[in-house]
Known about the structure:
Elements: E1 4-5, E2 18-20, H1 28-37, H2 39-43, E3 46-53, E4 58-64, E5 69-73, E6 77-85, E7 87-92, E8 96-100, E9 104-107, E10 113-117, E11 121-129
Antiparallel strand pairs: 1-2, 3-4, 4-11, 5-10, 6-9, 6-11, 7-8, 7-10
Amino acid sequence: xxxxxxxxxxxxxxxxxxxxxxxxxxxxxxxxxxxxxxxxxxxxxxxxxxxxxxxxxxxxxxxxxxxxxxxxxxxxxxxxxxxxxxxxxxxxxxxxxxxxxxxxxxxxxxxxxxxxxxxxxxxxxxxxxxxx
Length: 132
């Protein structure tokens, strides 16, 4: 298996962060501190960082300030959302649930959903894409 690194971006010019390999160690507390120190979080409503990305799974750490929203969208695969800090509302057209630290929700692909932060929050999104 070929190791994959992230590409540098204006937000993260250093690049060279391992995002796919046979074994990837993910230091969530370190990434939580990192995204809270970046301009996107300090000057805007949210920030995110992909901590693992393969053809079969993606893990994205997302931070939302209180009141910030991820508007209604669909995912191209099954997802889970695990709250690491804070309090969010996760909703579909049929229902909404409030999730606090330590709680999580799963959702099948193609179901429209949205997320709203009730308090400053960090959550881990796991996406298992639909097989191609």
